[in-house]
Write a structure and sequence with these properties.
Structural class: alpha/beta
Number of strands: 11
Shape: globular
Largest sheet: 9 strands, parallel
Bound molecules: S-adenosylmethionine, iron/sulfur cluster
Order of helices and strands: HHHHEEHEHEHEHEHHEHEHEHEHEHHHHH
Helix content: 40-55%
Number of helices: 19
């Protein structure tokens, strides 16, 4: 069925009509955005067409205020875990494309899943994003479920993985139900480009079906998965169009199913070993940061994810103006943690360790967090939105961020950033407004120092 979630003519018309916005109008829109109720497509169009560089600091300042108001100072960390690079698609931008005969394909067996997971647990991670190529036989859903069950079953002295988000090809309601039963966190799938013609041009194989890709979240929702992640691979088509399309997709899910996306990811195309494709619409660093800020204003209640596709300098600014989750210490090849594996999916631009990323985040007064409380407390989908839309989620993020970061410092950082980390913890502990909650957080913090783990609100 031809899905009508994205109205390309309408988006094109808005982008045309919002060209050269006057300064006063931009100021009004920024003022309205501070109400944290989001922006219309037209208002967003004016911001996307903003070329007056003198107004950019105001845009960034507004975005940073909204980020702090809704998500607070915390920055949640995770790592991707590439499980299988077997793939039957030919996506022009990806090194796992079926034409790649140089790639010695690999699918982790459960012992390797355990080894890779332990490696990540030993660096401090508690949340992973599982990545699979599309192969309905080799990477079938039962295999995916066995990997998920394996990872959740691994308990070590240094902790365990508490939330698994999954990035697997669009599939059936029945398959999504199996992922739901396996207790995944967010189901994440990117549209890559919302522009139908470009999408069809860049893909071959089952993924080339635009409608299958764009209706995947609806099927996942029907199967009971209500934390859904959407995204665009920036560089494939005009970023202004893509931002309005992303917002249209978010609005559609919110209107039809009462649940907007839990997260929006903003990957930018990166070079990859056998990929000759050159992005037709490359996004500059300045425009990339504009995208992050504008999305923060337009869909304030949605978490925003940045990956190690971006350089440290860009991530640093993006953390301030809208990003709430970031990957760190990532490897983009199957079985590549702790081992030299050839041919990643693409080449990353931030190869710092988790500890190094945390160190600079602390310099910027961010609170590193490994929190997994919401989904384990049942705060998902509509319940989560009910808290995040009025800015209430913050109440939980700060104490939970503090407690998970105390665990990190005690288990992984005694030799390094320990003192710096506790300075930040004490700073934000004193900022918990509710006296009772502040007291409870302090008590739990002491218990963690004494050896207890996994305490959350
Ligand atoms: N195979 C599934 C799919 O395509 O939806 C799962 C995810 S794939 C491993 C993860 C994502 O990597 C893709 O959705 C795509 O946006 C991104 N990606 C692929 N090639 C890339 C490249 N050269 N640079 C940056 N991101 C890339
Ligand atoms: Fe396969 Fe996904 Fe890469 Fe496309 S993006 S070739 S579907 S792994």
């Amino acid at each position: 069925m031809r899905m009508k979630i994205i109205d390309e003519n309408k988006i094109g018309g808005i982008l045309e009509r919002t060209k050269n916005p006057p300064k006063e109008l931009i100021i009004d829109i920024l003022k309205k955005a501070q109400g944290m109720n989001g922006l219309s497509l037209k208002e967003t169009g004016y911001l996307l067409n903003l070329n007056d560089s003198k107004l950019l600091p105001s845009l960034f300042l507004t975005a940073s205020k909204i980020k702090n108001e809704i998500y607070g100072e915390r920055l949640v960390f995770f790592a991707p875990l590439y499980v299988s690079d077997f793939c039957i698609n030919d996506c022009q931008y990806c090194n796992f494309h079926i034409r790649n005969k140089e790639l010695k394909r690999k699918k982790l067996v459960l012992e390797e899943v355990e080894e890779q997971t332990k490696f990540l647990i030993n660096t401090g991670h508690k949340r992973l994003l599982l990545e699979f190529g599309e192969d309905p036989i080799i990477n079938n859903i039962d295999y995916a479920v066995s990997v998920i069950e394996k990872i959740y079953s691994i308990k070590t002295e240094k902790g365990n993985i508490r939330r698994l988000n999954v990035n697997i090809a669009a599939t059936t309601i029945e398959d999504y139900r199996k992922l739901k039963e396996a207790k995944i966190g967010t189901y994440q799938l990117f549209q890559e480009t919302y522009h139908r013609k470009t999408y069809e041009k860049l893909h071959k194989g089952p993924k080339a079906n635009y409608d299958r890709q764009i209706s995947a979240h609806i099927k996942a929702f029907k199967a009971g998965l209500d934390d859904l992640g959407i995204g665009v691979l920036f560089g494939l088509y005009d970023w202004r169009f893509e931002v309005l399309a992303l917002i249209s997709h978010a609005e559609y899910l919110d209107k039809e199913y009462n649940v907007g996306p839990h997260t929006i990811s903003v990957p930018r195309f990166c070079a990859a070993p056998t990929v000759t494709y050159q992005p037709e619409y490359p996004v500059s660093d300045a425009d990339f940061l504009k995208i992050v800020a504008i999305l923060r204003l337009a869909v304030p209640y949605t978490g925003m994810i940045i990956s190690t596709r971006e350089k440290p300098q860009i991530r640093k600014i993006a953390f301030q103006i809208g990003i709430s989750q970031a990957s760190a210490s990532s490897v983009t090849s199957v079985g590549g943690y702790g081992k030299n594996r050839h041919q990643p999916q693409f080449i990353i631009c931030d190869d710092r360790t988790l500890k190094e990323v945390i160190d600079t985040a602390l310099d910027d007064k961010l609170l590193p967090s490994f929190c997994t409380a919401c989904y384990r407390k049942g705060r998902t989908g509509e319940t989560f939105m009910g808290l995040s839309k009025p800015g209430q989620i913050h109440k939980f993020c700060r104490p939970n961020g503090i407690l998970t970061f105390v665990e990190y410092l005690e288990d992984f950082a005694k030799d390094g950033i320990y003192k710096k980390g506790y300075d930040i913890i004490n700073f934000y502990l004193n900022k918990i407004d509710d006296e009772g909650l502040r007291k409870q957080t302090r008590e739990r913090l002491i218990k963690i120092k004494q050896g207890q783990r996994d305490l959350y609100f």
